[in-house]
Amino acid sequence: MNPKQRNRLILITVIVVCVGIAVTLAGIALKENINLFYNPTQIAAGEVPKDASFRVGGLVVEGSVRRNPGDLKVTFELTDGAEQVTVHYEGILPDLFREGQGIIAQGRMNAEGHVNASEVLAKHDETYMPPEVQDALDKAGNIEDAAAPGTSSKPAKGY
Amino acid sequence: MLAWLHRLASPKRFHGLAGFFITWCGWGALVLFASGLYYSLFNSPPDYQQGESIRIMYIHVPAAWNSMFIYITMAIASLFVLVWRIKAAAAVARACAPLGAMFTFLALATGSLWGKPMWGAWWVWDARLTSELILLFLYLGFMALQSAIEDKDAAARAAGVLAIVGIINIPIIYYSVEWWNTLHQGATITLSEKPKMNTDMFISLILMSLAFKFYFVVAVLRKARNEMLEREQNSQWVKEMLGGSDERK
Amino acid sequence: MNDVTNIAKTTAIEPSLGRAFMAMLGRDLTLAYRHRAQLANPLVFFTIVVSLFPLGLNPDPDLLRTIAPGVIWVAALLAAMLSLDSIFRSDFDDGTLEQILLSPHPLSLLVLAKTLAHWLITGLPLLLLAPVLGGLLDMSGEALGVLMITGALGTPILSLIGSIGVALTVGLRSGGGGVLLSLLVLPLYIPVLIFAANAVGNAAGGFEVTGQLAILGSLLALSVGLAPLAAAAALRISLN
Amino acid sequence: MNDVTNIAKTTAIEPSLGRAFMAMLGRDLTLAYRHRAQLANPLVFFTIVVSLFPLGLNPDPDLLRTIAPGVIWVAALLAAMLSLDSIFRSDFDDGTLEQILLSPHPLSLLVLAKTLAHWLITGLPLLLLAPVLGGLLDMSGEALGVLMITGALGTPILSLIGSIGVALTVGLRSGGGGVLLSLLVLPLYIPVLIFAANAVGNAAGGFEVTGQLAILGSLLALSVGLAPLAAAAALRISLN
Amino acid sequence: MNDKTNGHVRLEVDRLELTRNDRVIFTDLSFTLEAGQILQVEGHNGAGKTSLLRILCGLTMPSEGVVRWCGENMRDDRDRYYADLCYVGHYPGVKEELTPLENLAMVKSLGRIREGVDIEEVLERIGLPFGHEDQLCSRLSAGQRRRIALARLLVTDARLWILDEPFTALDIAGRRMVEEMLMSHAKAGGMVILTTHHAVELGDCNVKMLHLGA
Amino acid sequence: MNDKTNGHVRLEVDRLELTRNDRVIFTDLSFTLEAGQILQVEGHNGAGKTSLLRILCGLTMPSEGVVRWCGENMRDDRDRYYADLCYVGHYPGVKEELTPLENLAMVKSLGRIREGVDIEEVLERIGLPFGHEDQLCSRLSAGQRRRIALARLLVTDARLWILDEPFTALDIAGRRMVEEMLMSHAKAGGMVILTTHHAVELGDCNVKMLHLGA
Ligand code: HEM
Ligand SMILES: Nc1ncnc2c1ncn2[C@@H]1O[C@H](COP(=O)(O)OP(=O)(O)OP(=O)(O)O)[C@@H](O)[C@H]1O
Ligand SMILES: Nc1ncnc2c1ncn2[C@@H]1O[C@H](COP(=O)(O)OP(=O)(O)OP(=O)(O)O)[C@@H](O)[C@H]1O
Ligand SMILES: [Mg+2]
Ligand SMILES: [Mg+2]
Fold it and tell me: Considering only CA atoms, which of F12, D115, D103 is closest in space to residue E110?
């Protein structure tokens, strides 16, 4: 093997090794939960920061939304199926905010263990259909699959 | 193989081919836009949750797809410039950048317009949105570098390196919704699964996407062809062609 | 005069890559040492930019602590970016860069040596200064530790990616210089910023940071492997 | 050839300061227009730097809103600083600056014309873009209004003070360029940053801002009056 | 040339000294230049010719000595001196991104100019090929750019011309033309100071020589 | 000179064309250079001499055509070609903040070198006054810097020398020395390509001329 071939071989090996390491590490990273949305279970377990703002994600519990008449204050419960957490918010809610819908709230813990949200975002899902179809589905009692894909398609991470 | 590639992509040949595609894709784009607009404005139903706002999708999604597709086209063209030094590819890459920037901007703008009513925010710093913003910066960088280097060939190659380095951003945009828990929704339309979407909506979306793609083909070829003509103005074939058209007069 | 011809009678020593790499590195460090007054410039810039924030915002310690990771990393990005020009500029101006291109070694490895030198000269000092500024911004102990780790992983990426950017712009006499470079380089720096600052922020809140560190590591591996190649290609184009 | 001498038979038109000022301004604007692709660079830099912060920090809208004034002003400072070089660099390189120094007008007024051109080319666009970015960072309406006012008062100061800095460094070929300039200029920018960011922050909180605006106004008046003189003196020294 | 030309116009140089990095370039240099005279400065590379010319223009500060214009220290009344001065140096001072017309229009607005001077005419006389006056100067050859730099002399109404190697990059016809310009300027009562490595042919003009560098 | 010298070493240039901004500088340029030959490239300013030399070095990309070294396209095996090449261009390629010794030590570590070459000896032979080898190059005069650039030729073991105006800034003795170097290199079986505006005296060497620019 002449020096030139040797150099080329070294070069290629180095690149392959580097890319290999990169891919492995990226794999490790993706197993971790990076873009933290805490779910109510984690909040119940006290895993959230005390004095920093964080995000919590979950489904709005059916029938839990209480609006203050006269101002924009609203209180609702979020669930991930196991635990629940109470969220207070003041402001205009997005169109997609409704009971049973997946949302993300940014805020801080208050003294009672509730979340004071500064922002509430509604997460949309991958399903699109006309209202009539939705009615038909409702009648068929086939609702989970359509309305809570956030939980059904990716249960492990965010919510 | 190489010689074949060069012949196929010779400026003269490119001019002819581009002319052909411009004509036919031009008509295609017209028809597709007409039917796509009709479908998306009148024939597709409102969404069960989003109501009429869903119609933003018919611009947002095709624009977003185009923004990535154009970048890939630009990077591949740049590869041809760097490896085989094909002039037509340089012209194509150069023509891609402003179009790509335009579609990226369109995706960003329609996305935020859509985000306000749907999510409750114009803009959130999540992975999909951020990476799309980086895409815009990459296009701008590509154009800035091209315009800063005086020698056209060197400019094409230097910007080509940048385009190829930046391609790493494309998988990040595409998979961001899966790798990170973004606010932006995941893919509805994949090759592997049947879309969870009403057929009329689906047709509108596909029509509009095709219309955008055709428009891109027409626009990019027109720009590239004009540039080639300008650069080759002193060459034999351009003179012949212009001479020919003079005689016709 | 006749002596001149004598030299031609000897036999040759073939070029050695290792020797060339070390010589390149040593040379750049020597040059930096000869200009040691300028070694401090990026550090001073870094310090000034970081201290602009307590001045521009109200100096509430809670707020400062929250924004500290982001501010420090943004300032580090800008300081690294402004110092990039020195990687190739002076070599380009006096023709040494041509000679490097004409050496019988893979250009990418010589570029790697130069990038390593740049990191030792600017990245490493920034890395060492960062905890001090972090302390001034009231960061906690763990956060400072993670700040160091992200710095160690992140600053080399800045030099590596930056080398592509300067290689692309070194040939431009009047290209709006610095601003153009920043346009090319900053978008590519954004991922480093996001994950590094995020890791430090998380550490301050007492959470897991392995994910972010793994990503930084993977970015580093990727850029060590590929950036010198891209920079070498860019150099050949710039010198055309 | 004999014709050449003919010209000498006419009488003279004395130099006019107004004409010279307008010609200078017009020329710089024309030159900027000839390079219009590069006009956008500072704007893009500004945008990128502003967007680095939400990326590096936790994107909590409350937090963003709090730091927005500081961030926007710091980014504006940096963008203005990076674009400074263009005031005198190209004129220095091709010898036009010598000719300007040799014109029978107060040099400081010609410098003022060049500074005004620089502000029109970079400061004004920054000023117009700032509210857009402020919007992205979730700033309120009143805050945006005051942001505009501080911008209108503050960006000219940046150009004026900056002109002194570049005038001092324009003669240095290899002086570590950008970083040195930043060391000279940024400390002088700090008062602008403090009062402007503070005014915007106060406006967001619904407080009085007349005090800060008055100070900015007085800084502006001061720098309009004195900066061109200092820059002119610095130029004569640099070209020595 | 305006009416004051016939007064006591003169340039006096009084005991100039220049040191650069503690090295003396020249010292104790004095001379006087009267209306109608041409001064040619000679010396090897690095003798200090350019430095001297820049001192005479007030661009470089001498370590010692003064330059007087019409009896007054030139630094005390720069504006008056500069209205009388036209300098063409090593650098052409021509902006590449402007056309020749725009470049000269700028000269016209900055200084004291000859009345009724027509820039297009000047460009033609100076030998710029027709059609080039609207092209960006970056497209012109080195010789053409130098011609535009020299065209400044014909646009302004300066009494004192200071020229640093004006013949650089010019062909023979160009050289001849510049020589004619110098001679007619001197005959009309102007003054010229120039350096050059070329042989110059200035007919019966009043030419003084100054040798720099031991 | 190592043993492969006596093989079929040759430089073939095949139908080169160069366009700059769509302007043709030269086209259809072909020649061959054999061991022991010297090629002198001539042409007026701007004829494309420097550009040609840079193409031969692989620094500039030609629009058309190839350069072959020992029968193989130079771009396909850069490392081998560059081990055989030494280029001294317009820019000296000498770092001002390093001493001559350090500069040449760098050359030594980068390329293929002559065994047992002693840098101090080379510096002496090339005519650098004693005591200057430890001074920063920024303190040296232009001619001395050029000598250091040319010293590269004596340190490396390159068969092909490409020299762009090597006589610039040299005095007569220096010129003579470089001519000797060229001749002895050619006699030992090396090749030289050079441009110059000076008259060169190369004795009985095999000198080819190439004229650029119509
Ligand atoms: C500024 C904000 C936004 C940006 C930058 C953005 C960006 C993108 C991009 C790059 C894609 C293409 C990715 C792919 O093909 O998988 C995409 C697709 C899509 N976006 Fe957005 N988007 C934004 C806001 C929104 C909003 C607010 C909505 C609706 C609530 C939305 C709905 C969609 C949908 C439905 C798709 C198609 C996904 C698929 O089926 O593959 N986007 N967006
Ligand atoms: N800015 C400077 N700093 C230090 N030394 C300088 C500077 N400018 C010039 N010199 C030195 O001053 C001396 C005179 O330079 P000058 O340019 O006046 O020479 P010159 O006579 O014009 O030469 P030439 O014939 O090459 O134009 C030179 O030795 C030069 O090295
Ligand atoms: N980077 C470039 N971009 C565009 N044109 C260029 C470039 N470099 C050189 N040229 C043009 O190419 C032509 C040849 O230049 P080159 O430097 O090869 O000339 P030369 O024969 O070496 O001249 P000289 O005798 O002055 O050294 C010139 O007309 C020049 O203007
Ligand atoms: Mg001189
Ligand atoms: Mg040359």
Answer: D103
Residues of C with a Cβ under 8 Å from any B Cβ are 164, 168-169, 171-172, 175-176, 180, 183-184, 186-188, 190-191, 194, 230, 233-234, 237-238, 240
Touching subunits of B (3+ CB pairs, under 8 Å) are A, C, D, F
In a domain, C26, yes or no: yes
Sign of the C-alpha dihedral, residues E45, E47, E51, E56?
negative
Q: Indicate which of C34, C35, C36, C52 best probes the interface with D, i.e. most D CBs within 10 Å of its own CB.
A: C52
Instruction: Compare all CA atoms of chain A with the CA of D63 and give the residue at the minimum distance.
Output: A53
B5 touches chain C (CB under 8 A): no
The answer, yes or no, to whether any atom of ligand 2 lies below 6 A from the CB of E62, is: no
C190: nearest Cα among B124, B148, B111, B132: B132
- Listed by start position, the domains of chain A span 1-34, 36-140
Helix (H) or strand (E) holding F24: strand F23-34
Cβ-contact F64, F16 below 8 angstroms: yes
Query: What is the tally of structural domains in chain C?
Result: 1
Distance of alpha carbon C218 from the chain centroid: 17
Ligand 3 neighbour F21 (Cβ under 6 A): yes
* Residue E46 Cβ contacting ligand 2 at under 6 Å: yes
Q: How do the pLDDT tens digits run along chain C, 240 residues long?
A: 344 444 344 577 777 888 899 999 999 999 988 887 778 888 888 998 888 888 877 767 778 888 888 889 999 998 898 888 889 988 988 889 999 999 988 899 999 999 999 999 999 999 999 999 998 888 888 889 999 999 999 999 999 999 999 999 888 765 455 678 888 999 999 989 988 988 888 888 777 788 889 999 999 999 999 999 999 999 999 888
CATH of span A36-140: 2.40.50.140
CB contact under 8 A, F21 and B152: yes
Going from the C-alpha of C178 to that of each of B102, C214, D75, F63, the distances in angstroms are 25, 32, 15, 31
Measured N-to-C along each axis, helices C61-83 and C36-56 cross at an angle, to the nearest 10 degrees, of 150
Q: Which structural domain range is residue C52 located in?
A: 14-238
Two tokens at F29? 């340029």
- Residue C98 has its nearest CB partner, among F91, F114, F180, at F91
Q: What angle do CA C23, C25, C27 make, to 5 degrees?
A: 65
Beta carbons within 10 angstroms of residue C137's beta carbon: 22
Residue B80 CA to ligand 3 center (angstroms) comes to 28
What gap in Å lies between CA B172 and CA C222, rounded to an integer? Answer: 15
DSSP code for C121: I
* Alpha carbons D93 and E91: distance in angstroms, whole number: 8
d(CA D165, CA D188): 10
In contact, C218 and A23? CB cutoff 8 Å: yes
| Chain F residues lying within 8 Å of A7, measured CB to CB | 79
User: Which residues in chain D are closer than 8 Å to B144, comparing Cβ atoms?
Assistant: 37-38, 40-41, 44
Nearest to B162 among C168, C175, C238 (CB): C168
CB E163 within 8 A of CB E88: yes
Q: How far is the CA of F45 from the centre of ligand 5 (A)?
A: 7
D106 in a domain, yes or no?
A: yes
Angle between the N-to-C axes of helices B199-231 and B87-119, in degrees from 0 to 180, rounded to the nearest 10: 150
For residue C5, being part of any structural domain is answered with no
Domain ranges of chain B: 57-228
Do A117 and A107 form a contact (C-beta atoms < 8 A)?
Answer: yes
Which atom number of ligand 1 is nearest to the Cα of residue B188? 40
Chains touching A (at least 3 CB pairs under 8 A) are B, C, D, F
Residue D171 domain flag: yes
Nearest residue CA, atom 30 of ligand 3?
F46
Contact: B141, C187; criterion CB under 8 Å: yes
Beta strands at E10-20 and C12-13: parallel, antiparallel or unpaired: unpaired
